[in-house]
Amino acid sequence: MHKEDKGRGVSVNIGGEREARLSLSGRLYLENLHYVMEWVDPLLEQPLLKSLAVDLAGLVRIDSAGGLFLLRMQEEARRRSIRFEFLNISPGVRGITDLIDKDVIEPRPSPKVRSGGFFEEVGETTVMFLGDFSQCMTFGGILLSEVLYSTLHPASVRWKDLLLSVKKIGVDGLPILALISFLMGLIIAFMSSLQLKQFGANMYVASLVAIAMVRELGPIITAILVAGRSGSAIAAEIGSMRVNEEVDALVTMGFNPVRFLAVPKVLAAILVVPLLTFFSDLCAIGGGMAVGILGLGLTFRTYAELTSWALTVHDVVTGVVKAMVFAVLIAGVGCQRGFSVAGGAEAVGNATTSAVVAGLFLIIVTDSVFALVLNYVKW
Amino acid sequence: MSSGEQLVKEGMGDGRVIRVEDLSVSYGDDVILQDVTMEVFRGEIVVVAGGSGSGKSTLLRHMVGLSRPSSGRVEINGIDITTASAAELRAVLRGVGVLFQSSGLLSSMTLAENVTLPLSEFTDMPDAFIEAVVRMKLAMVGLEGYEDHFPSELSGGMRKRAGIARAMALDPDILFLDEPFAGLDPITSAGLDLLVKRINQRMGTTMVIVSHELESIFSLAQRIVMLDRGKRGIIAQGDPRALRDESPDPHVRHFFNREIEEKDETGRHGA
Same domain, yes or no, for A59 and A139? Predict the structure, then answer.
């Protein structure tokens, strides 16, 4: 039996049945091994085969995969108790087969991965969650004490970094925040006006937009946007610094990495997020006003007056306080996730995702707490 | 086999596998390399040496088509990779392996998966055989048993060796090594020397090594190409021992003899 494929540069010649002789000539390398295997594997599986001689006289070129193929063929024959020999093996081929570690020819049994049962997994997850919680708490404590220290010692704050963060978190986020808030106000006003029209209560659209946005939606929208834009960026930045040993370098130079990296970002967020929230409120009211003037026949003056009657200082102040708390949570979680990165690029990605998810979770939980508490606290 | 691969296996016919011709690289007004011309012949080990900032790594990046030069050409096996189409470049690069300075292993994959990647992508071997090839490659660089480790779990030297295993996965004809010895202890370094030599002798792989480690240069290099920051190009080529002892350029002698130099007479190396 003779098989030759010039295009692949190899020819396989098989003769005899019980005492077979296999000649390989041409080139034996990664690109054509697959083809050679198709012919050689059935040969080894023949039940009548007693001995096999492999003639390598015509082999011009061979790579390490080709060498491995030859050795595996030899091993396979030994396993099947077939007498096996190489004929005319050249020093070049020998040089390559000698490079190959004989242990790799037979697959090593892969270590069994023990899978724990349901209870074990629940236990592990709980321990992991508790560990994560305690890490967050510890970091939160450190961060708060550092922020407090920095406010008492303003000279220790890296103002340049802080201003840069103010720009990144605040100024750069303005356009998208303005757009989202304006459209939110517009949608709320439009949807509610459709219902209120039926009762002739069009004028309440203004108060509805104002109260909904200033008390609840403004702080939430702003916080979600900041968590997505800046919480993730903070985690990724600090995480990459961990991977590149920049954080370790800071520690050995005698810096406190939390004070150096986290405090400017957290302070910037505390300064900027309330302003962003206020801005978001204004834009939403603007959106509502657009509907009021264009769709409901209200004048600018009427709409503004209706809005100012609906809002109290209490609403605005609680909105700002909420925003400050959200700011600490978002920036804090971002920093914590960043500092907890260990490993490589994938860990940075995980930390970034986790910073956003944990940030959103904390925002919603805290907002619920605020809603409950503010219901009772009035002045 | 496509014509590109054919050429990769056959070379230019006259023994030259790489030809760099009048290569100039500049970033803005900053000229890094100017009119560099050099050749690499089949089966030889060439070390590209030079002080920090002399453009060694820049030259390497251009030799493997990662950056396009300001002017000049780089031919690998007769194909000018500076003007080659993306498909042609890919075909040429199939015959080329590169070890990056920081190993370039994908951190989200285990060593075995890293080495498997090119094999399963570019060959149609059965999985069991690919797995054996992967273990063989890792065993060649002394990393048997580390198949399931992630790069972040390894030391720097081990990562370098794993990087070589991946670069060698497809048995390339040309292997580029960027600073393979930087940051390694003398024993690991010597082991790597031996590995590079063995691969070169047994498989006939052409090696282009960027390094400034003198010990490895003397033990490995059959030819050395020395770059200089002041001249923005090659100041010496040839056998490293001959250059050390006989070079007319004092800077070259200082480099190979590991000597401090005065802010020197021509004002060339002070930059």
Answer: no
A379: in domain = no
Same domain, A258 and A187: yes
Distance CA A85, CA A78 (A): 10
Q: Which tens digits make up the pLDDT trace of B138-152?
A: 988 888 889 899 888
Give B106's contacts in chain A (Cβ within 8 Å): 345
Q: What is the DSSP string of A189-257?
A: HHHHHHHHGGGT-TTHHHHHHHHIIIIIIHHHHHHHHHIIIIIHHHHHHHHHHHHTTHHHHHHHTT--H
For chain A, the domain total comes to 2
The closest of B77, B24, B44, B83 to B234, measured between CA atoms, is B24
Name the minimum distance, in Å, from the CA of B40 to any CA of chain A.
21
E-assigned strand segments in chain A:
2-5, 10-15, 19-28, 51-62, 83-87
Q: Which of B129, B151, B201 minimises the CB distance to A344?
A: B151
Tell me the CA end-to-end span of chain A in Å, nearest whole number: 99
> Does the ipTM surpass 0.85?
no
Give this prediction's pTM.
Answer: 0.72
Same domain, A162 and A51: no
Judgement on whether residues A320 and A250 belong to the same structural domain of the protein: yes
Q: Are residues A255 and A155 in the same domain?
A: yes
Strands lying side by side in the sheet with A19-28: A2-5, A10-15, A19-28, A51-62, A83-87
Q: Does A33 touch chain B (CB under 8 A)?
A: yes
Helices (H), chain B: 3-10, 56-63, 86-93, 111-122, 127-140, 156-167, 186-203, 214-220, 240-246, 250-257
Q: Examine residue A94 and state whether it is found in any structural domain, yes or no.
A: yes
Q: Split chain B (271 residues) into runs of 10 and give each run's mean pLDDT.
A: 39 76 87 90 91 85 87 90 86 88 84 90 85 90 88 86 89 90 81 87 90 85 89 86 84 82 51 37
DSSP, residue by residue, A293-308: HHHS---HHHHHHHHH
Closest alpha carbon to A24 in A88, A72, A80: A88
More confident residue, A301 or B53: A301
A103 has a chain B CB within 8 A of its CB = yes
pLDDT digits (tens, 9 = 90+) for A46-103: 888 888 888 888 888 888 888 888 888 888 888 888 888 888 888 888 888 888 877 7
Domain extent at residue A99? 2-105
Q: Which pLDDT value is given to residue A258?
A: 92
pLDDT in tens, B234-267: 888 888 888 888 888 888 888 888 887 765 444 4
Start-to-end CA span in chain B (Å): 49
- Report chain B residues whose CB lies below 8 A from the CB of A342: 152
Backbone φ and ψ of B220, nearest 5° = -105, -45
| φ, ψ of residue B32 in degrees (nearest 5) | -95, -50
φ, ψ of residue A200 in degrees (nearest 5): 65, 25
